[in-house]
Amino acid sequence: xxxxxxxxxxxxxxxxxxxxxxxxxxxxxxxxxxxxxxxxxxxxxxxxxxxxxxxxxxxxxxxxxxxxxxxxxxxxxxxxxxxxxxxxxxxxxxxxxxxxxxxxxxxxxx
Length: 110
What we know:
This protein is an alpha+beta fold. It has one domain (13-108): Arc Repressor Mutant, subunit A, CATH 1.10.10. Helices cover 53% and strands 15% of the residues. It contains 4 helices and 3 strands; from the N terminus they run H-E-H-H-E-E-H. It has helices at 13-20, 28-38, 47-59, 83-108, and strands at residues 26-27, 63-69, 75-81. A 3-stranded antiparallel beta sheet has the order 1-3-2. The two termini are 31 Å apart. 19% of the residues are buried.
């Protein structure tokens, strides 16, 4: 049996993207790579999910995009958190903590 990549839980992608932008702007591939790196290769964000999420987060005002040049000298859109995005990250992190605490309690019950 191969090493399977789990699907992201519905509603977590936005939080993971916001978290990956917490300290510095990144382009799309850099965001996906950061999530994969931090998760120690457990989570993988596919482009078909990533870019619609980035456009949605930008439309909500949680991230801002600017054109720049990537490490390999290509034009790329760099995304960074806005003040509203930082507040949303805090709110989503707190919500996730409450949900996982509840799930853990149910799983630990006898």
